Amino acid sequence: MPLRGKLLIADPSLRDGTFKRAVILLTDHSPEQGSSGLILNQPTGRVVGEFLKRKEFSQLRHLAVHEGGPVLHDQLTFASFWWSQKLGLRWALRISAKQAAQHAHRPGRIVRAFIGYSGWTIGQLENELLHHSWIPVGPQPDLLGHDHDRSLWPVLLRNLSPLHRILAEAPTDPFLN
Fold this sequence. Notes:
Helix content is 17%, strand content 36%. By secondary structure, the protein is α+β, with helices and mostly antiparallel strands. The protein has a single domain, classed as 3-Layer(aba) Sandwich (VC0467-like), CATH 3.40.1740.10. Strands 1, 2, 3, 4, 5, 6, 7, 8 and 9 form a nine-stranded mixed β-sheet that branches. The longest helix is centred in the middle third of the chain and has 8 residues, at 97-104.
């Protein structure tokens, strides 16, 4: 099954801190080389200006920084996302600050800064899918209109089925009820 471009919605049973209730855009997938993606719904509460002080980044200083994943967590990268009626969700990764500023001024595009990314070695993601750790879904045109924070996970999950709706509305830890 081609997975590149799919969203990976963390199964409610996935309790790892980094991936708990995560929504990941799978930007690359190859059974022979592994997979990588970006967590879309984990803003850090920080902005680019806290990390990059030089003048070339001034247009992006108020841009929210998101947790992209645990790999190369010491790197900040820019990405742009847009919806194509013909091709669906499109993206440009690891773009320069100048390109990010240009993308930010184009209608229908969103620009994000990410710390790190999510990565899987050969066969690792396929194994996690076999164990139902992730729910792969195709992105819908309204994805870019949603807030890309913790509220994205239940929004996407509740639309999958009646069971998923119940899971999306359950408390984070039902044992504390």
